[in-house]
C-alpha cells in the first residue's frame, strides 16, 4: 500500500511539535475538513465529557463516534471477537473512497487505497483493520 506524508493540516493550523492526534488528523484528511475545525470540535467533546479540552493526546471513542455520526459517516466493523484478522491495511483488501481505518492503537486516513499519515503505519501490509468509518453519501 502506498503511503504519503500528511499531517492533515496541523502545521498550517499553527500547531507545532508532535502529538498523539491521529484521530483528529485522520478525520481532517478523510472528511476534507480544516484541522483546526476538527480539533476544536473533538476538544469540545472531550471537555463536555469532563476531560481536558484538548484533542492533542487521544480522543475517546464515544467523542469521535458522536462527531463522525454528526458528519454523516458510518462505521463498518471488520473484526469480531474470535474471528481473527480478515482485512489488512492493504489497498486490495479495502474499498475505494475516503476511509478512516481503526487499527491497533491508531486511526488512519486511507484515500483510494493510499495511506495518508505522518508515518507508514501499514506494517508492510500486515496490520489488521478492526473496522473503518466511511461516508455513505460519497
Which SSEs are present, and which pair or pack?
Layout: E1 2-5, H1 22-31, H2 35-48, H3 61-70, E2 74-77, E3 98-103, E4 106-111, E5 114-117, E6 131-134
Parallel strand pairs: 1-5
Antiparallel strand pairs: 2-6, 3-4, 3-6, 4-5
Helix pairs in contact: 1-2
Structural class: alpha+beta
Radius of gyration: 14 Å
Give the termini separation: 22 Å
Q: Average pLDDT value?
A: 95
- Per DSSP, what share of the residues sits in E-state strands of 2 or more residues? 15-25%
Provide the succession of SSEs.
EHHHEEEEE
The total count of strands amounts to 6
Strand order of the largest sheet: 1-5-4-3-6-2
How many DSSP helices? 3
- Identify the overall geometry: globular
Q: Helix amount, in percent?
A: 10-25%
Return residue spans where pLDDT drops below 50 for at least 5 consecutive residues.
none
Question: Short summary of the structure?
Answer:
By secondary structure, this protein is α+β, with helices and mostly antiparallel strands. The chain is built from three helices and six strands.
Describe this structure in words.
It is a single chain. The protein is α+β, with helices and mostly antiparallel strands and 138 residues long. The chain has three helices and six strands. It has helices spanning 22-31, 35-48, 61-70; strands at 2-5, 74-77, 98-103, 106-111, 114-117, 131-134. It has a six-stranded mixed sheet with strand order 1-5-4-3-6-2, covered by helices on one side. The radius of gyration is 14 Å and the shape is globular. The two termini are 22 Å apart.
Amino acid at each position: 500500500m502506498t503511503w504519503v506524508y500528511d499531517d492533515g493540516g496541523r502545521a498550517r493550523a499553527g500547531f507545532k511539535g508532535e502529538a498523539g492526534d491521529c484521530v483528529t488528523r485522520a478525520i481532517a484528511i478523510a472528511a476534507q475538513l480544516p484541522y483546526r475545525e476538527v480539533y476544536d470540535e473533538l476538544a469540545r467533546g472531550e471537555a463536555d465529557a469532563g476531560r481536558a479540552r484538548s484533542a492533542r493526546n487521544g480522543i475517546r471513542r464515544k467523542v469521535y463516534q458522536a462527531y463522525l455520526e454528526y458528519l454523516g459517516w458510518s462505521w463498518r466493523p471488520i473484526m469480531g471477537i474470535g474471528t481473527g484478522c480478515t482485512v489488512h491495511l492493504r489497498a486490495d483488501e479495502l474499498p475505494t473512497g475516503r476511509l478512516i481505518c481503526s487499527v491497533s492503537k491508531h486511526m488512519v486516513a486511507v484515500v483510494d487505497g493510499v495511506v495518508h499519515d505522518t508515518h507508514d503505519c501499514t506494517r508492510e501490509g500486515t496490520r489488521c483493520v478492526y473496522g473503518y468509518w466511511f461516508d455513505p453519501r460519497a
